[in-house]
Request: fold
Amino acid sequence: MKVNVKNHTMMYPAPAVVASAYDEEGNADACTLAFAAMCSHHPPAVMIAINSTLKRKTLKSILHSKEFCLAFPSAEHAAEVDYLGIESGYRENKLDKINFTHKKAEKINAPLIEEFKVSLECRVMHVAEVGSHTQLTGEIVNVWADESVMKNGRIDFELLDPLAYDDITHSYFRTGEKIGDAFKIGLKYKK
Ligand SMILES: Cc1cc2nc3c(=O)[nH]c(=O)nc-3n(C[C@H](O)[C@H](O)[C@H](O)COP(=O)(O)O)c2cc1C
Reply:
């Protein structure tokens, strides 16, 4: 038996990622986002959605610079990621407060946060207003990964130990173990 549940925006697993951009004065902004997803292979692109009614500083900075970095934090940084999602750059220099360091990304003018082990450099290629949020599509123009999360020349998300976020209970989770090979375990039904 199923129960009818109240309408709620949801997607699971949802990532807890961190978008960063420079503001008009060149200060680094960063905020945590759960509204983030892959959206194109050619060109490689991701989309993020930032609330436009609640005055996020990072949104203003991304719309100004048209560039942003998107980092995939590890579970070890859950508290720092949470802080970046509950404080505003309008009030605090958040990255300084958590003692995180950053440098200008290579191909774009956006802050690359050193403590996060995987980061994308993105150029805004499309902006759309979707209800309460501004949806930004970023073309991925460069990807960085710590050697510590590389295995056989590829990023290994098990080594990254990324954060998943549940917007129903407002909780962070680790992702689970591998259970199969995609595009293979379903082959038995193709015969
Ligand atoms: C786990 C988590 C996920 C979040 N996801 C989003 C999101 O997808 N979009 C959004 O607009 N805000 C999201 N937020 C809230 C922003 O990160 C928060 O308002 C932040 O303080 C904005 O900072 P800024 O003003 O420096 O940009 C999230 C916060 C947390 C803790």
